Amino acid sequence: MQQLVIEFSEPSAASGGFDRLLELASAGEIAIADLEFVHSIAGVASTVAADRVDPRLAALDGAASGLISRHDLDAVAAELPHGHTAAVLVYRGGALDAAVQAWTDGGSTVRTLPTR
């Protein structure tokens, strides 16, 4: 399984990458094992449903499976600037090049999980 963190301040700027992610999953090119959206509250992760981040992300609400540890979510939250959201993605399968390109084109930062 592979992991990515997508950090953004404006959900509308990140929506293109999530559209590509859904296309790849629908085509069977990848399988989403877990997708958690987090905000930071004093450095502690607060998970939030995808549709609460942006109603256009409602199709991703069922992707949160709880596979990502609380420790990993807190590590991501600790690095989030005020007002930013992070999507922590665990997936199997092919490359996410099209989604990563759309995220970065929209102004998102794509990185790996912080090391322990």
TrEMBL record:
Highest rank taxon of the organism: Bacteria
Name of this chain's protein: Uncharacterized protein
